[in-house]
Design goal:
By secondary structure, this protein is mainly beta. Helix content is about 5%, strand content about 60%. The protein has two helices and 15 strands. It has helices spanning about 5-15, 35; strands spanning about 65-75, 75-85, 90-110, 115-135, 140-150, 155-170, 175-190, 195, 200-210, 215-220, 225-235, 240-250, 250-260, 265-270, 275-285. The protein has a 14-stranded antiparallel β-barrel with strand order 1-2-3-4-5-6-7-9-10-11-12-13-14-15.
Length: about 290
C-alpha cells in the first residue's frame, strides 16, 4: 500500500470541504481573505465575502458586489474563490460561489519509504449558490444554499451535493446567527459507492463596541458535539483602512483591509500550528 498517497488523500478531505464543514479539520482555514485576518469569525459581517460562510447576511448587505480570494498555504496547498451577491430588490439577494482547492507537488512514495518518481496532486472544484431573504422590516434574515462539487483524488474521483441554511438576527450593536451545513449531503465515487455525511451546525455572534471596534465569535459542532471555535476583533482606523486579528482553533491570524472608492483590497496572514507554517491570503472586492 502506498502510505503517502493515503495520507495525502485523508488530508485533502479535511482541507477542501465547505468552510463550516467537518469539525475536526487540521487546517480549519477560512478561504475569504477578508475573513482570514479575523480568524474566520466574522460570519455576521455585511460583506460579499460571506457568501461561503453565512449567506443570510447578504440580504442586508448594501448593494451588489463580487469578490476574489486566493490562499497560498503551507504543505503545498492552495485555495481560490470567486463569489458574488446581487441585489435584485430590497431584501432579496441571490448569490453564487466558485471554489477550487488543491494539494500538489508530492512525489509518490511506497510504504517502505522509497519513491516512484511520479508527481501527483489532488483537487476539488465546487459550485454553490442560493438566495438570501429579509423578512420585511424585521431584523431577521435567512438563506438557502445548494452546493455541487467534483473531486480528483489521484486514482479516485467523486462528485457530491449538499444543502446549507442560515438564519441571522441583528439587534442594535448585537447580532447572532445559526446555521446548518452538509444537510442531505451525498458523495458518489467513480466505483459507484455512495456516502452520506452528517450535518454540521454553527452558532455565531458579534458585538460592536463602537463604530470602529467589533468583536465576533463562532462555534462549530456536529452531532457528536465535537467543537471548533473561532474568535476575532476588527478595528477601523478610518474610512479606508481596517485592521483585524483572530484565532482559529489556536491558529493565530492578522490582516488589514484598504478601500479605494468601490474597490476593497484585503491581505491576511495566519500562523498554522499543525505544520508550523505561514498561510497567506489576498483578496479584492468590487461593489456596484
Amino acid at each position: 500500500m502506498k502510505a503517502l498517497k493515503i495520507c495525502i488523500f485523508i488530508i485533502f478531505l479535511t482541507l477542501s470541504v465547505f468552510p463550516y464543514s467537518y469539525t475536526v479539520d487540521w487546517t480549519n482555514v477560512p478561504i475569504s481573505a477578508s475573513q482570514a485576518g479575523g480568524g474566520g469569525a466574522f460570519a455576521l459581517s455585511k460583506e460579499w465575502g460571506n457568501a461561503g460562510y453565512n449567506p443570510s447576511v447578504l440580504a442586508v448587505t448594501p448593494g451588489s458586489g463580487i469578490t476574489f480570494s486566493g490562499g497560498m498555504l503551507s504543505f503545498g496547498r492552495s485555495l481560490l474563490e470567486l463569489s458574488g451577491a446581487f441585489k435584485i430588490e430590497k431584501g432579496i439577494s441571490p448569490f453564487i460561489s466558485l471554489r477550487y482547492s488543491s494539494v500538489g507537488g508530492f512525489e509518490e512514495a511506497l510504504q517502505d519509504g522509497s519513491k516512484t518518481g511520479d508527481i501527483f496532486s489532488i483537487s476539488r472544484f465546487m459550485f454553490s449558490g442560493g438566495f438570501a431573504y429579509r423578512f420585511g422590516r424585521a431584523p431577521l434574515t435567512a438563506s438557502f444554499g445548494f452546493k455541487y462539487f467534483l473531486e480528483d483524488l489521484y486514482e479516485l474521483s467523486s462528485s457530491g451535493y449538499g444543502i446549507k441554511v442560515n438564519l441571522s438576527v441583528f439587534v442594535g450593536k448585537f447580532s447572532i446567527g445559526i446555521g446548518a451545513d452538509d444537510l442531505v449531503q451525498v458523495i458518489t465515487y467513480d466505483s459507484g459507492r455512495e456516502e452520506e455525511t452528517k450535518p454540521v451546525f454553527t452558532v455565531c455572534s458579534a458585538y460592536a463596541v463602537s463604530d470602529a471596534l467589533q468583536f465576533s465569535g463562532v462555534f462549530i459542532f456536529d452531532m457528536s458535539l465535537k467543537l471548533n471555535f473561532r474568535a476575532g476583533a476588527r478595528y477601523r482606523v478610518n474610512e479606508k483602512f481596517r485592521l483585524s486579528i483572530g484565532t482559529n482553533n489556536y491558529n493565530i491570524s492578522t490582516g488589514f483591509q484598504y478601500k479605494v472608492k468601490d474597490i476593497i483590497l484585503d491581505y491576511s496572514l495566519q500562523i498554522e500550528r499543525a505544520f508550523s507554517g505561514i498561510n497567506n491570503f489576498i483578496g479584492i472586492s468590487y461593489g456596484f
